Amino acid sequence: MKKLLLFTAVALLGLTTTNAQVKFGFGFGYAMPSGDIADITDGGFSGNLELGYGITEDIDVSVFLHGDFLTGGNEGQLSYDTVVLGSYMLNGRYYFTKEGFRPYGSLAIGLTDIGQIEAEANNTRLAATSRTSNFSFRPAIGFKYGIFNMNVAYLSAGKVGESGAKQSVGDITINAGLLFTFGGN
Fold first, then answer.
1. What span, in angstroms and rounded, lies between the C-alpha atoms of 7 and 150?
2. Which stretches of the chain are assigned E, i.e. beta strand?
3. What is the rounded CA–CA span in Å between residue 22 and residue 54?
4. Which pLDDT value is given to residue 173?
5. Which of 42, 94, 104, 124 is 20 to 30 Å apart from 142, CA to CA?
């Protein structure tokens, strides 16, 4: 049985390495809060970095690092809320076409670190921080044209807070960047 499994693994590896493609990409964009954190933040910046492998011409898998910085407001007598999301995920992407303009759908799953910084002024409490990690998922749709990569994604990072007052954490991002492919066809 062990020999059969080893033979199958080697055969699959041999089939996939004939079209092996290493992927490296990064992107930047805008993040809009979603869920309960939309009550305390207005929006912010998003960035990502990924290193992946093209299993076939249509399917990629990658390690995906994603960060969002969302900030709030109220300048009269101060009062700011800031939420920082750092995601470490495994991403799968499926391309719907093989050449030229390549639309795709993807799904990433992993962990998101959620950090929150608060402030106030006249009602005092000038800073408080909290941090937690949750299981998260990130579906996205986008396209790749040459090395240009653009996508729209929704990040669901679970809930944070006390058991009676849990708040949902998520955001919608619009990112543009570059996705390089090395090797393969």
1. 39
2. 21-34, 43-54, 59-71, 81-95, 101-118, 128-145, 148-160, 167-182
3. 6
4. 95
5. 42
